[in-house]
């Protein structure tokens, strides 16, 4: 595979997500469709302090992976961030693209939060996130994994 770039996305509507939406739905996931719908209706645009939406682009500038960082909407704690709407296109999996993107989101989260949480219910994703240093435990509301940052 060629060179990839992780970039912060400031306006999701400037990008074609049809392929990622179709692929994720075929995989049984609706969260990329929710990402687009929530962005369009303004309920989650990743634009508050400590939030961001990030994409990985291939050499042809095609969006091949996406993931976001929000203040955790399930907690009243301002020090908890949530990794959300994370998806890597099938043909780009298992070559470091997902790790590259999660590490960028972790680096961003460390600037604003003491804890980063996420929710997944698949074994493959569990293995992926634990390999990156997340702990599998539901200590935080609506989460399956967390990572604490040093103060």
TrEMBL record:
InterPro entries linked: Acyl_CoA_acyltransferase, GNAT_dom, NAT_camello-type
N-acetyltransferase domain location: 1-151
Origin superkingdom: Bacteria
Keyword flag Transferase: yes
Transferase keyword on record: yes
UniProt keywords, alphabetically: Transferase
PANTHER family referenced in this protein's UniProt entry, alphabetically: GNAT FAMILY N-ACETYLTRANSFERASE (PTHR13947), LD18367P (PTHR13947:SF37)
Annotated protein name in UniProt: N-acetyltransferase domain-containing protein
Organism: Sutcliffiella rhizosphaerae
């Amino acid at each position: 595979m060629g060179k990839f770039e992780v970039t912060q996305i400031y306006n999701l509507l400037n990008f074609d997500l049809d392929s990622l939406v179709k692929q994720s739905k075929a995989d049984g996931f609706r969260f990329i469709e929710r990402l687009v719908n929530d962005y369009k209706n303004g309920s989650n645009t990743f634009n508050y302090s400590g939030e961001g939406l990030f994409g990985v682009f291939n050499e042809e500038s095609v969006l091949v992976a996406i993931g976001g960082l929000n203040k955790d909407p399930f907690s009243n704690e301002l020090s908890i961030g949530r990794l959300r709407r994370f998806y890597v296109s099938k043909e780009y999996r298992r070559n470091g693209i997902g790790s590259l993107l999660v590490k960028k989101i972790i680096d961003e989260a460390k600037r604003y939060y003491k804890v980063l949480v996420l929710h997944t219910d698949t074994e493959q994703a569990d293995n992926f996130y634990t390999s990156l240093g997340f702990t599998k435990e539901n200590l935080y509301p609506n989460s399956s994994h967390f990572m604490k940052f040093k103060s």
